[in-house]
Amino acid sequence: MTDGLPMSVPAEGLPPRVRIHEVGARDGLQNEKTVVPTGVKAEFIHRLATAGLSTIEATSFVHPKWVPQLADAESLFPQLTGIPGVDLPVLVPNGRGLDRALELGARRIAVFGSVTESFAKANLNRTVDESLAMFEPVVTKARATGLHVRGYLSMCFGDPWEGPVPVDQVVSVARRLLDLGCDELSLGDTIGVATPGHVRTLLSALNEAGVGTDSVGVHFHDTYGQALSNTLAALQHGVTTVDASAGGLGGCPYAKSATGNLATEDLVWMLEGLGIETGVDLGLLTATSVWMAGQLGRPSPSRTVRALSHQEQ
Ligand code: HMG
Ligand code: MG
To answer: Which H or E run contains 90?
Structure first.
């Protein structure tokens, strides 16, 4: 190891470059008990951009009562314009959310569907069918306006109410989201129960149903410490878009067993070691997460952040 980076030893069968979809400011901060001040969020996102992250999910235009932590979307988003070369996707569940996002000039949105009925009800107050019907005009209007649309699928590997989730059920909702017009999908392991064989099986099943790996990203929460192994399995399958959260922030307020996402630092450490380009400066990113941990008043759960910053365990 030199200068806070692992020795680079490439391995066969992996992509040369990975696009990191940074979700700390959205998935991370939506789950904080306290509401982080808007200025701190803006500084967080600016620092993430300076560290080289080029896709930073900024906030959500959801009902403010459902996610009070992100109720400041209207005042935050204008503070982010002018970050050069950075995409700032935002979550949008319905027409009202899309209108709010469009008014502020958002160029990328994400709708967020569930593979299971229980989570669709808990998170969107809708059945799976009703939520897809809610997304349909949103995706159509967004695409007509030239926006890029991501479609999240939650509970792809297991659900806290329903238990194991059949692969066919995931494939069916994935196809329906793509058929609505989503540009890309993100496969959410909301409660972190996936393991690598399961990841490969799902990706193969999606391919068999005509869903190309190039339209799929992965979104692993790290509840059982499997997120990095699952990511490697996805990379070996050809996935090149990986969601991660600076410092391992994250969770979902409507799924109790959800903990933080794969930490971006842990991901970058592995990718650096494999010689895979990310464009991210690990030192600047770690400093950002240490700063954010100070704002939140507790240490980052990321092993890499702790190792690089010599934080107390
Ligand atoms: P609802 O209560 O069914 O809402 O909630 P509604 O459609 O009946 O509307 C009720 C009122 O809310 C109306 O106002 C609407 O205008 C207003 P009224 O006419 O009564 O005065 N309203 C809104 N106001 C502002 N912005 C809006 C909006 N929509 C309606 N967008 C709703 C349905 C979808 C709104 C609600 O369930 C909601 O906001 N859910 C969001 C939950 C959420 O954000 N969860 C976390 C993100 S998902 C996640 O973290 C998983 C992920 O990371 C992947 C993974 O890990 O698996 C993505
Ligand atoms: Mg998530």
So the answer is: strand 90-91
